Amino acid sequence: MSVLSPIIKRHFTKELEGKEGAVFDLFEWKTCDVLLKDYKTGRVLTDLKGLEFPVSYFQQACDIIASKYFRKAGVPGDAGHETSMRQVADRMVAFWVASLLDEGMISPGEEADILYDELVYALLAQMFAPNSPQWFNTGLKLKYGIEGGQNELYYYDPDQDQVVMSEDDYSRTQASACFILSIEDKLLGPHSITEGYVSETKLFKGGSGTGTNFSSIRAEGEALSGGGHSSGLMSFLKGLDRNAGATKSGGTTRRAAKMVCLDIDHPEIEAFITWKAREEDKVIALAKMGYDADMDGEAYQTVSGQNSNNSVRFSDEFMRKVADLDRNPTATSQLKGRRDASVDRQVPVRHLWDLFNQSAWRCADPAPQFDDTFNAWHTCPAGEDGEVNAKHNRINSTNPCGEYAFLADTSCNLASLNLMRFYDPKGHVFDIDSYVHMISMAQLALEASIHWGQFPTPAIARKTWAFRATGLGLTNLASLFMSAGLPYDSDQARAIGAALAG
Question: Which residues are catalytic, by number?
Answer without folding.
Answer: 399, 401, 403
